[in-house]
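Blackboard transcription, Thursday session:
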Amino acid sequence: MNVVVLIKQVPDTTNVRIDRKTNNLVREGVPSVINPDCMHALELAAQLKEKHNATVYVITMGPPQAINALKDAISFGLDEAVLLSDRAFAGADTLATTYTLYKGIKKIEEKIGKIDIVLAGRQAADGDTGQVGPGVATRLGYSLAAYVTSIEKIEKDEIILTRRLDRGYEKVRVKIPCVLTVTPELNEPRYASLPNLIRSLRYQPIVWNKDDINADPKKAGFFGSPTRVVNTNIPPARKGGDIISKNESPEIAAQKLLDELKKFESIRLIEGLRVLVGDKK
Amino acid sequence: MRKIFVFVERVDGEAHPVSWELLGKARELANNLEESEVWAIVLGKECENVCKEAISRGADKVLYVKNDQLVEYVNYKYKKVLVDIVRKYEPEIFLIGATLEGRELAGMVATELETGLTADCTGLDILPDKKLLAMTRPTFGGNLMATIMCPEHRPQMATVRPGVMRELPPDPNRKGEVIVEEYSIPEMEKFIEILEAVPLSVKSNLAYAPVVVAGGKGVGGPEGFEKLRELANLLGGEIGASRAAVKAGWISDEYQVGQTGKTIHPVLYIACGISGAIQHVVGIKESEIIVAINTDENAPIFDVADIGIVGDLHAVVPAITSKLKAMKGEVRK
Amino acid sequence: MIKFDVVVIGGGPAGLSAALTLAKSGMEVAVVEKGEYAGSKNVMGGVLYTHPLLEIVDNAVERMVNEKAVERSVIEQNMFLLGNGSVLKVGHRNPEWKNTPNAFTVLRAKFDQWFAKIVEEAGVLIITKTKVEDFIWENGKIKGVITSRPEGEIYCKAVIIAEGVNPILTMKAGLRKEDIKPNMAAVAVKEVIDMPEDIINTAFNVDSKSGVTYEILGEWSEGMFGMGFLYTNKDSISIGCGVLIEELKHRNIKPYQLLDNLKNHPIISDIIGEYKNNVKEYLAHLIPEGGYYSIPQLYGDNVLVCGDAAMLVNSIHREGSNHAITSGRLAAETLVDAFNKGEISKKTLKSYVERLKESFILKDLEKYKDLMPTMEKNQHFIELYPSLFNRLATRFLTVDGTPKTDVEWQIIDSLRNERGLIGLGMDALKLWKGVR
Ligand SMILES: Cc1cc2nc3c(=O)[nH]c(=O)nc-3n(C[C@H](O)[C@H](O)[C@H](O)COP(=O)(O)OP(=O)(O)OC[C@H]3O[C@@H](n4cnc5c(N)ncnc54)[C@H](O)[C@@H]3O)c2cc1C
Ligand SMILES: Cc1cc2nc3c(=O)[nH]c(=O)nc-3n(C[C@H](O)[C@H](O)[C@H](O)COP(=O)(O)OP(=O)(O)OC[C@H]3O[C@@H](n4cnc5c(N)ncnc54)[C@H](O)[C@@H]3O)c2cc1C
Ligand SMILES: Nc1ncnc2c1ncn2[C@@H]1O[C@H](COP(=O)(O)O)[C@@H](O)[C@H]1O
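(Written on the board underneath:)
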């Protein structure tokens, strides 16, 4: 069984700050991490390797620094890691990203044969689109199951799994080859063993540029991206009101709150608060 | 005519509320885009009522792809149908709700059509001079808003976050046309097959409740939510929760509000024992009135709250409940 | 089985310096660091003296500057005695330090990562996010370490302990009988405050490459023995203070209250002005303050201790990282010699202590060994003198028509009233003895 895991390196969004003076996002000094959802894809890949003797490649498209994410990924005990890096890939939206990843996967296929399962995270913490998994599946012509929460069984040409949708969970049979995007519910990423960690620290990922994967520069990166970010801004902060009660008795605090609420016209919209404005209905 | 397509997501015989929100928005866009009309796309069978409602909610035309095989959402079949009808009718704009299903489907459709897709938008506008759709969406955990356009490829596609746009009240007098599309699904490989649907054990009305009483880490445990529930019931509302409370296992994730939970805009939001992290606040900042009850007067939630109370929620919330109960009692007398 | 010649526990300045020295002599070295990366949780005020690095890294100064490992070259050092609303300053400025840097201000997360990169380039394997939990013993000798990871044993011929101020493994190795006591360490808290580069340049009268340090005694510490500091980084300042744990416990004061005192003192608050609340980072850490008397057994069979773990800090001159780097190097050199001799035992490793004694480290620590106890036992050094001296200075410098002889007598009177001339004499003697 051949498996490819798509991972993305993202800034640790819990550390992103806003410089209120310049109204810029401060990215400097913000550490990069493997996108949290991708950690669960890596864990699943490690299990496939253990239980199904899978050959696992990890792949990412990104700048040279993304090497670090790939090395970390190898610590899950996986086989090889590939960085797709080229100036021609820069500035990609999801359509161009899926093109480049697709070409990368095809190149891996040349080396190890038909890819059975492609794993991705549900969404990336920075871009947060959740579109790359479905896009790659479409380009490959594979079946797709997004938002996988548990896997019941894996057979030669199908997987039975449960996935999350808005209205509930859904147990499905998915034909292999397939793309799965996974949610944090699926598993708990492991703490790598020391031998695997040491291997990952010494490991040098494979780096491919546009020629290596035979990518058409018109379809990759900025030129292959139909969408354009025309503007970014920091959302204006909502202005707070006053603290009306500080460490007073709960009764006083409650009374002050109800008195204060009366001042808002819109509370008439709330059934349960009409008593405040003397509406008997 | 420029067509604005709106995909009507359906759960059994009913449309997902986001579909009506999108129709409301599409109507507004159509008003700003000359010679345009709003098309609702409905897939399934026995959807006549949904089609009718789509018109009353703002659609000029309803494209009804009536087919037995489309009763359930099956991603590869839906993709095939949508791609084919887009190729046939060539809409300018295609909007899909950013539900989990919607995002999966949109990602497949846009890739097949090789067009741009903007995810999870919270704002849509027409740029009058260029007649382009400007799509605004939060990134970096809500810290940054990006405005995105798709100048050359068609359709301009976006998924739109549920709960952000306002739907129009149904107008039974609106006129529109239902086009029943004759469409037969070609023989295809069975990529994915639904074996069993497991509905959610808890159903919350969170996204649409006029009042939300929400609890965070400060609630201290599952029992604490009972107090919030009592107040919420009294106010005719629903309870909500921060991720910290959900993560602690005190309450189901159906109740989570925020970036990775639901975006809501109730008339009244009462945050109890919630610190007010940015990822939480992005989900509530469109609320009309925000009340915060927190023991820590420096909690960031007070920066966004209209009314702040520094105090212990375990004492203050029951006090509010009993005050209100007493008042209601008096009124009845 | 995972095998190295030497395992170094801790990727701070001491451990990195030891590892680099070992690798240069061709040894296979692994550094085990529990943090996300070297320096991720490490804290210092941050003045780093350049001299110890020059001995182990080629072109250390140029590289540090070019690779942005350091903030500013310190060209001016000041001592502030804060009185009630006023300050008495002593300072020294030498622009020559711009050309031949003596010390740099640093932020540890940046500096340690830079240092770690150099060490890795020399062939050392730095294993991060991994904690050493115990040793592998065989026949009473250390044969390796046990880490927090699955299959986490590493076998080796020798271990260097550079774990910093919490001597957990030093104790497990049997080199320290009991944990450090509250009077052997200070709790230090520190904030990094964002301040634009040009504002710093104007406020401290420096160019973008040069920086300034303030050591601050007096009013903020509520009578406790503690040292405050304010250092200029590139586009931020580091401000913080340290007080003995014992005193904090005794007085039940939280360290950040003291930092607030310091920041809100009119003199300090004037300097940092509107940026006061631009706190980018808040850090807390221990500083070994036990000095000479708290140094553990420094060597055993197959094992050496260096840096803060060996309590090699001179708190008077805020020298810690330089002692760490030097002691790391000396420990490594001792080991290399022992390897060459073919015997790594107490006997061959004993020369580590001799080397430390020959170096400035033990000499300095010995010199100051009685100063700290003197200061601690004599509260008036802290409680009285800063405010007294400030009042005296004010009196001396206020020209109000009082004849100078009268001013002098007024000063002598207040000295006599507040401490007594004999007391003063005694204090001078004690201080002199402390640094003798
Ligand atoms: C990628 C990402 C996505 C995220 N998405 C979301 C999201 O969708 N929704 C979300 O909520 N969070 C989200 N978070 C998490 C978010 O950053 C915060 O960690 C979380 O919102 C904190 O929850 P809290 O306010 O309940 O807990 P805390 O931050 O621990 O705050 C608890 C508060 O309760 C107060 N308190 C304690 N006891 C009492 C008492 N007796 N009475 C009154 N007050 C009391 C405390 O003073 C404190 O302010 C996300 C984080 C990341 C990184
Ligand atoms: C507020 C403050 C201000 C200071 N100011 C200055 C100054 O201006 N100038 C100066 O020279 N010195 C200063 N110091 C002192 C200086 O920081 C230390 O002396 C120096 O860092 C000691 O280096 P070290 O390598 O011995 O220890 P550390 O830097 O503490 O490094 C120890 C490392 O070991 C790791 N570790 C610990 N246990 C384990 C384990 N079991 N397994 C794996 N890894 C482990 C830790 O994560 C850490 O990275 C200051 C200290 C403080 C707290
Ligand atoms: N540049 C990329 N390289 C590899 N995988 C990616 C990349 N971008 C996104 N992905 C994968 O797609 C998932 C969803 O990302 P997104 O669609 O950007 O939210 C991630 O969790 C990754 O698995």
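Lecturer's comment: Chain C has three domains: 2-71+106-178+294-358, 183-288, 372-435.
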